[in-house]
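Predict the structure of ABC transporter permease.
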Amino acid sequence: MFRLIAADLVRHRWGALAIALLIALATALGVVVTLEERALRLGSARAAAAFDLVIGAPGSETQLVLSAVFLQPAPLTLLPGDVLAALASDPRIAYAAPVGFGDFSDDRPIVGTTQPLVDGLGGVSEGHSFRRLGDAVIGAAVPRTLGESFHPMHGLAEARGGVHSAITYRIVGRLAPTGTAWDRAILVPIEAVWRTHAPGAHGAEGHGSEIHGSEDHEDANHASEDHAQAEAEPHGTPTRTIAEAHRQREQSDAAGFDAAIDPAALTNPDAPGVPAIVVKPRSIADAYRLRQAYRADHTLAVFPGEVLTRLYGTLGDARQILAFVTLNAQLLVAAAVLLVVLIHVMGRRRQIGALRAFGAPRAVVCAVVWLEAVLVIGAGLAGGFALGYGVARLLARQISMQTGVVLPVGFAAEDGAAFLLLFAIGGLATLLPAMLAYRQSPAAALRA
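Done. Here is the predicted structure for ABC transporter permease.
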């Protein structure tokens, strides 16, 4: 019987392959939706694990988490310095680490922060952490070497942001891999970010009220310098005096970035503002008290996990819509496959009649027809799960390259149950053509 099935499948191999491919494509669509949605949930939850509480200015909770945890650029209102000073001295807090953005190096975000957050992200796996204002610690996925120097740029390169030519960072360490967006980031002392964006800093913008300061500040600085030069020349002031002033300012900035980090800067209520503050409470009770205390008119405190849960709800709704579309596609494919099998059985009436005439029992004929269909369906389902897994891995890799968040794509127990359920449904559906073959009489089949 099995040799007969094998010979029949070889003889109709192209038709069987087309049916299996159709089933595989319909199955792969559902597998991709399931695996990718699960990977997004797991990857984002792991990325937020090191961030117990995030405090920012009033606004969108989702955007605050996306910016502080996933380093997605967006305009955020700055928190005043007295908020950071109060958090730094709060006994309920293990550490309060500011997070400042705005500059880039190539397409890598430069994030100003402090040593406790570096330790909270897993610490340095190579080199050492901040010692001076000009030190930088790169993420595990940043393709640079220790000892390399670079100038920060305001905004992304394609946005044609201005380069802070007077500011030079030197890479002194590399973060341990985290599987998060911070693997693509470059961490520098927050005081360095403040100095870079301080009013009057050479080649830098003022630290306005947004996460990305407006380039208008820089244009205004250049315009004021050109105006000062134009004003100076009619009064007999040599142009080289202004150029010398620029050089002296650059030397002053460079010397300032060689200074040691001052821990007391964080407790200064007059310190510049920051877009967000990452807080590590000493206990769960302290975490809830702090969130309640800082959900006020001028501050916003959120648990990233809660915000992500709401996002998962939205993602789940989208997944249900996609699953509904996928189910309809699979039902259409199943109906088409069943129709093809029925036509195939009706076209083999003479062959079935000959088998019966030579003494083949009804059960054997029924089993041959049923097993052939089940083998094709099983091959299509297996190919669909394999194809869906491969596509999900490719999509996850692409998302990881863009965001830095590692998305763990993998099958779970429920996926195995789904495969068995689909296989069982396919097996039951193919009983219909098998029963038609079972009830066929040899005489009627040979007369057809």
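The first strand starts at residue 53 and ends at 56.
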